[in-house]
Amino acid sequence: MIISEMSTLTNISEHTLRYYEKKALITVSRDERGRRSYDENEVEWIRFIQRLKETGMLLRDIKKYSDLRAAGDKTILERLELLEEHRLFVLDEQNKWERNLDNLNKKIEFYKNKA
Fold first, then answer.
1. Tag placement on the chain: N or C end, fewer CB within 10 Å?
2. How many CB atoms lie within 10 A of CB 24?
3. Contact status, residue 79 vs residue 69, Cβ threshold 8 Å
4. Where does the HTH merR-type domain start and stop, copy by copy (predicted)?
5. Helix (H) or strand (E) holding 24
6. In the chain, where are the structural domains located?
7. CB pairs under 8 A, 24+ apart, for 62-69?
8. How many helices (H) and strands (E) does the chain have?
9. What CATH number belongs to 1-54?
10. What pTM does this model have?
11. ∠ CA 63-34-41, rounded to 5°
């Protein structure tokens, strides 16, 4: 599929897809006319990158993960370690958001009782 189709399918802008390619987060083949040509494997990989970004992983860490992925199965333990570290970060952020939500709910309840 071409870049516009990938953009529609993943809900990621063409600009962002080109940026991912420029930063070597993804590798995209070209068709006979020189257009980017994506396959189903890239769809899942791009969606995974997006999920990592949504959980707050920095692009430099996504790049590190991408490089390890490209190096093959010999890097599985390193990838596992990177994901486990990021999981701890996500859990910490989740706890922070839960505390903030609790505080917000208490303040809302305070104002409802005053109204």
1. C
2. 11
3. yes
4. 1-68
5. none
6. 1-54, 59-115
7. 62/25, 63/23, 63/24, 63/25, 66/24, 66/25, 66/26, 67/24
8. 5, 2
9. 1.10.1660.10
10. 0.84
11. 45
